[in-house]
Design goal:
By secondary structure, the chain is mainly alpha-helical. The protein has 8 helices and 2 strands. Helices cover 52% and strands 9% of the residues.
Length: 208
């Protein structure tokens, strides 16, 4: 199963915006080039574009696994925010596989990915619904409630802005299954392309 390699990039501190400059990128990729690899060579454009998809799927799987493996600590704001951040990141990463992301970047068709799997379609629709309700908007969600609490006292009004969020940990296994199902679909699609590439190049292809 193909997965993209991850190379972390450390940016310098300061007041300027952190970016990956061409010089930084060249330095960062030096070890890969030293191994004999050519970066983004011509003739591999279609294959290269799938790196976006693999990145999203690895991101989705890893973040959902984090939520699964780190129990919620009720009443702890920092823990709750961290749980929400990872949960939303997993949702967004998965849903990006099914959304237009720019010229040349693949976009999956849910009808093809979940053909013959009604349960899979329902989980997919649940993830899309969560993306629309809590990741993109928070005005209509079954796991987020915003409340304004007002207490009137003789000399003052006490106001609290309250936010209640439930992390559906009982659904994480289903979400991970949806990610795995999508990964399998992508792997099959990539393997078909790699088989054609092997014939065109006359060489065996190995994924590192």
């Amino acid at each position: 199963q193909p997965t993209p390699g991850l190379l972390t990039h450390r940016t310098n501190g300061g007041n300027t915006m952190s970016t990956i400059t061409d010089e930084d990128y060249k330095t960062h990729m030096t070890p890969i080039v030293a191994e004999g690899f050519t970066l983004d060579p011509p003739g591999f454009e279609r294959l290269s574009s799938w790196t976006h998809m693999l990145m999203h799927l690895v991101n989705a799987r890893t973040t959902f696994e984090w939520v699964r493996d780190h129990p919620v600590e009720l009443g702890e704001l920092e823990n709750s925010l961290r749980q929400q951040a990872f949960f939303v990141a997993g949702i967004m990463a998965y849903c990006r596989c099914f959304a237009s992301s720019g010229s040349g970047v693949p976009m999956l068709d849910a009808k093809k990915v979940y053909e013959g799997s009604d349960d899979g379609k329902q989980i997919h629709e649940r993830l899309i619904g969560l993306r629309n309700s809590i990741a993109a908007h928070t005005d209509a969600s079954d796991i987020v409630r915003l409340t304004l609490a007002v207490k009137e006292e003789p000399e003052r009004l006490v106001i609290r802005h309250l936010w209640t969020m439930a992390i559906p940990v009982n659904e994480i296994a289903d979400f991970l299954e949806a990610v795995a199902h999508t990964e399998h679909f992508v792997t099959v699609s990539l393997n078909k392309y790699l088989n054609r590439l092997e014939k065109d190049r006359g060489k065996t292809i190995e994924l590192d």
